[in-house]
Amino acid sequence: MSKRPEKQVMLPTKIVFRIGMRGIRTRLGRSLVTLAGVACGIAFLMSVASGFLIKQAMREDADRMREIQRRVASVRATIGRLRSKHLVVAAGEMTLLDRAFLEELALRRGTRVSICTRGATAPSLAEALPSADAVIALGRDRPLLTEVDPALIRKMPVMLLGDVAADTEALLSSAGAWVHRLGIELRPEEIARMTKRRQQERYRMMWIVGVSLLITVISITNALLMSVTERFREIGTMMCLGALSQFVVRLFLIEGTLTGLAGSIAGAAGGAALALIGYAYIYGPATVLASVNLAALLLCGLACVIAGVILSIIAGLYPARVAARMVPASALRSRI
Questions:
Q1: Which residues does 336 contact at the CB level (< 8 Å), separation at least 6?
Q2: Is 85:134 a contact under the CB 8 Å cutoff?
Q3: Of 42, 45, 255, 280, which one has the greatest count of Cβ atoms within 10 A?
Q4: Of 23-27, 35-39, 122-126, 193-197, which gets the smallest average pLDDT?
Q5: Domain ranges of the chain
Q6: Shortest CA distance to 115 belongs to which of 45, 107, 328, 103?
Q7: What pLDDT is recorded for position 1?
C-alpha cells in the first residue's frame, strides 16, 4: 500500500533572505551591474523631478523679484525720487514678500525706512509720522493708521498695499490723506499668457515623468531578467534538491527588492546632484541653493526611492515567475 506524500517544508522568509544576501555577495559583479541599471533609471527620474523643482523655485524667485520691483516703481511713481525720503511703514502681520520689499526700499541710497507695528520694541507711529514724507500700510491688522491723530496724516501720501477694507480707505480719505493704491496690476493678456505657459510646462513635465517611469521599468526588468537567465542551472539545481516554486519566487523578489533599494538610493542621490550642479552652473550656486526648497527636494528623493523599490518588485515579478515555472531538467541543460 503506497504512502501518502509528506508535506513539503516551506523555508521561513528569514532563511530565504539570508540565501538571497549570500547570492548577492557571491555574484557581486553581476549584482553591481543590475544595481547600476536600477540606479540609471532612478537617476533619470530624480534628475527630471528635481530639475522641475529647481526650475519652479527659480521662476518663483524671479516672480518675487519682479513683484518687488513693481512695488518700488509704484512708490517712486507716487512720491517721486526716493533719495533723502523718510518712509514710515504701518505694518501688521507681514509676509516674506512684504519684508523683502521693505529691505529693497531700505537699500536705496539716502532712503530712511521706519517700520511701526504694535510691538513694544517698535517705534511709535505717532512719533514717526511728523518727519515722514509718505506712509506705506501693508500686512494684516492695518487699522493702525486709523488710531492716530488725523492731523498727522493730513495732506500726506498714504500708500495701501494689498486688500484694504473700503471703510478703512474711506476713513483715511476723510482724514485728509492722499490715499494711493500701491502696485502695478498685470494686464489680462499677460495673465492669460503666463497661465498658458505654466500649463504647457506642467503637461511637458507629466510627459517627461511618464517616459522616465517607463524607461525605469524597462531598465529594471531587463537587469533582473538577465540575472535570472544566467542562473538557469542554479535554479534547476535548487528545484532538483526540493526547492518549491514559491521559494524561487520569494528568493528573486527579495534579491530584486534589495537591489532596487540600493540602486534607488544611489540613483536618487546622483540624479539630485546632477540637477543641482547643472542649474548651479547656469544660475550660480548661491542663487540655486537660496531659492530651492531642500525639504521638497528630500521628499522628492524619498518618493523616487519608494518608486524605485516598488518598480523593482513589480519588474521582478515576471523574471521570478519565469524562474519558478522552469523544468529542472531543461534548466540543468542550459549553457548560459
A1: 229, 230, 232, 233
A2: yes
A3: 42
A4: 122-126
A5: 13-62+189-332, 66-186
A6: 103
A7: 46
Is the pLDDT at 179 greater than 80, yes or no? Answer: no
Q: Are 207 and 28 in contact (CB under 8 A)?
A: no
Q: What is the CA 319 to chain-centroid distance, rounded?
A: 34
226 vs 6, residue with greater confidence: 226
The answer to whether 104 touches 152, Cβ cutoff 8 Å, is no
Whether the predicted model's global pTM rises above the 0.85 cut: no
Q: Which residues make Cβ contacts (< 8 Å) with residue 24, sequence separation at least 6?
A: 31, 255, 258, 259
Residues 6+ apart with CB under 8 A from 161: 71, 98, 136, 137, 138, 182, 183
CA–CA gap between residue 20 and residue 13 (Å, rounded): 10
The CATH number of the domain covering residues in 66-186: 3.40.50.720
Contact 258, 34 (CB under 8 A): no
Give the pLDDT of residue 184.
Answer: 55
What pLDDT does residue 166 have? Answer: 61
Q: Element (H or E) spanning 87, and its range?
A: strand 86-91
The owner of cell 540609471 is 40
How much is the average pLDDT of 81-107?
A: 82
